[in-house]
Design goal:
Elements lengths: L12 H11 L1 E4 L5 H16 L4 E2 L18 E4 L6 H21 L3 E11 L5 E4 L9 E8 L12 E4 L5 E4 L6 E5 L5 E3 L6 E10 L6
Antiparallel strand pairs: 1-9, 2-3, 3-4, 4-11, 5-10, 6-9, 6-11, 7-8, 7-10
Bound molecules: N-oxalylglycine and manganese (II) ion (MN).
Manganese (II) ion binds next to loops.
Length: 210
């Protein structure tokens, strides 16, 4: 199939940029066109069926370990040469990266991203997306790939905002959530059904020794 054409001046980019500047996070329902959401969900399910998703690890480098008591999702990182539908998603996220750099001067250099599948009952305890020993992750971005999600299905992304405010996002297909990786603690609540997403991080240049 030919790659879907996506406009690089997505109408919601400016709103996301404004939200980030104002409050450090943004939720945009209907960010992904429905056809793209369905294709990405199919790609995620295909990978899961082929056994390509693996239990996600906690931590970084040699300290990485699988701890289902902390997070129970199964993931696969996107790579060069993935299916065209993944490239469409990556192009869309790159247009978001450029918009954030242009308006917020964030100096975001790249984007890393993985499919995630939470089996029923799986969760991810409250955490920050920035590693202690690596502060390159600057903006987190999650898009959801689930149709007809209802509040009683659980699986909300719960964000812990300023002044003790908690805000829940329903993981409904096409919805995008972005937030500052080092500033917004968040968790994934257990769901009664399978929960699919694409999660990614816009990163700044690091000060890694080479
Ligand atoms: C993560 C994460 C949130 C979500 O993968 O780090 O917090 O809603 N995901 O899937
Ligand atoms: Mn997270």
């Amino acid at each position: 199939m030919r790659a879907m054409q996506i406009s690089l001046d997505h109408p919601l980019l400016q709103r996301i940029v404004d939200d980030l500047a104002e409050k450090g996070w943004s939720q945009q329902n209907g960010f992904l066109p429905q056809a793209l959401t369905l294709e990405l969900a199919a790609e995620c399910r295909k990978r899961a069926a082929e056994g390509e998703l693996a239990p996600a690890a906690v931590g970084r480098g040699p300290a990485q370990e699988i701890r289902e008591g902390i997070r129970g999702d199964h993931i696969q990182w996107l790579e060069e040469g993935d299916a065209p539908v993944c490239e469409t998603y990556m192009r869309l996220m790159d247009s978001l990266r450029l918009a954030m750099n242009r308006h917020l001067f964030l100096g975001l250099e790249d984007f890393e991203s993985h499919f995630a599948m939470y089996p029923p009952g799986a969760f991810y305890l409250k955490h920050l997306d920035r590693f202690r020993d690596d502060d390159r992750r600057t903006v987190s971005a999650v898009v959801y790939l689930n149709d007809a999600w209802l509040p009683e299905h659980g699986g909300q992304l719960r964000m812990y905002l300023k002044d003790g405010v908690e805000y829940d996002v329903q993981p409904t297909g096409g919805c995008l959530v972005v937030f500052l990786s080092g500033e917004v603690p968040h968790e994934v609540l257990p769901a009664t059904r399978e929960r699919l997403s694409l999660t990614g991080w816009f990163r700044r240049r690091g000060n890694e020794p080479f």
